[in-house]
Amino acid sequence: MKRTRKLIFLLAGLTAGPVLGQKVETVRVIAQMPNRTAKLPGELQPYETVDLHARVAGYVEKVLVDVGSQVRQGALLVQLSAPELAAQLAEARSKVEAAKAQKAEAEARLASAQATYDRLKLVSATPGAIAGNELVTSKASVDAAQALVKSQDAAVQAAVASESSVRALEGYLKLRAPFAGTITARYAHPGALAKEDTPLLKIEQTQRLRLVAALPESLAATARIGTRVVFTVPAYPGQEFLGTVARLPRSVDPKTRTMPVELDVINGDLRLAPGMYPELLWPAQSGKPALMVPPTAVVTNTERTFVIRNRNGTAEYVNVTKGPGTPDLVEVRSPLLHEGDVVVKRATDELREGTRIAAR
Known about the structure:
The chain has about 350 residues and is of the alpha+beta class. Helices cover about 25% and strands about 35% of the residues.
């Protein structure tokens, strides 16, 4: 009986003493802009590309480049030959010389007529020295000679223009690079007949590329000119490349609900190639800060996902939705959780709701 009373007194003493909470490590909920990225497929395209055609019909005489050749702007690529153009040029030159000779003859006639008129005009100052109509006839000869000179001058200009046109056609026999780039296809070989619609080579600018990606409508508001975007390609696992947003159409395709954007990619080392399919890590930050806690503060069991908040020294479960994050912080969403709330840093469902807790 005495032992029982002693045990009752001890239990009563324990109950009457101060209640000590379980020691736990706590942190505060913070609000910051989440660093989100969305993975988007894309396609690398040459910055400029064109099939080079012959502008005049002729035979391929020389092909000075081949597939893979790096060429500078204006470099000679293909030399054609067209014997009929040489004949046309010779004919045009002869017409120019003939027109110049006729003009010189007309100028000589004008000089003679002008000298005769000047002499008669001087003699006519003496009354009765010449007949009155001789001066008029001489003046008419001068006018006719001047008109002939003008006509021959126009003939010379027309002949020169015709020669220049043929000479320009002759210049088209030399096919040059319109821009610096890489020859990616060759369609012609020496001896082949090249017509005006026949492609001879294909050139692409590969030191600078276009990265085209279809941006979903939900991310259209995040597109900004000048934004730098990281991307990867299967050819180089684990390596990252950079592109800069350069062109935005500001229009969403109603069929796919996407907006095609173009990024410029500097490819000086030619490691990337047109036709590759990169994966973009598109920066998709939201417009408002998100609540962030350490990943260890979020508990997920078969019933729910929650954090344990310190509410006046008592453990309180707060249901949350877990969002993206980093190894250090993870986003949590809940209308009941606020910035500055204190939560258990290393939470577990073994810490029951309602348990008295104290920060250590």
